Amino acid sequence: MKHLIRMLLKIALVLAATTALLKFSVGPAESIGFNYFSVFISLFILLFSFVVLLILVLKNMPNRETWEELKPEILLFFAAVGMMVLAGVIN
């Protein structure tokens, strides 16, 4: 499950970065079709991964090894959210 979450978060990060790049280089009006597609997919992935990460963390809360195992996924999640903030998707 961790590998699936990691792959989905990388896809969300790439889509958010592409949206930010298109928005700043081409302009928001010209890239609006791709923006809607990218935003929908990225937000769905982020919501799904947030729920799964929350379940994994709460299930093994007292275990410190859980935090060490999930550190890459948590960092990818915050990177994708940060990139979406930069793109102007999340205010």
Characterization of the model:
With 91 residues, the chain is mainly alpha-helical. It has one domain (2-87). Helix content is 84%, strand content 0%. It contains three helices and no strands. The chain has helices at residues 2-25, 32-59, 64-87. Helix 2 packs antiparallel against helix 3. The longest helix has 28 residues, at 32-59. It is elongated and about 45 Å long. It starts with a helix and ends with a helix. 23% of the residues are buried. The mean pLDDT is 78.
- Count of beta strands: 0
Major beta sheet, specifics? none
Structural class: mainly alpha
Distance between the termini: 30 Å
Shape: elongated
What is the total domain count?
1
Taking all Cα atoms into account, the compactness measure Rg is: 15 Å
The helix/strand series, from N terminus to C terminus, equals HHH
How big a fraction of the residues is strand? under 5%
Residue windows where pLDDT falls under 50 for at least 5 positions: none
* Helix percent band: over 70%
**Count of separate DSSP helical elements:** 3
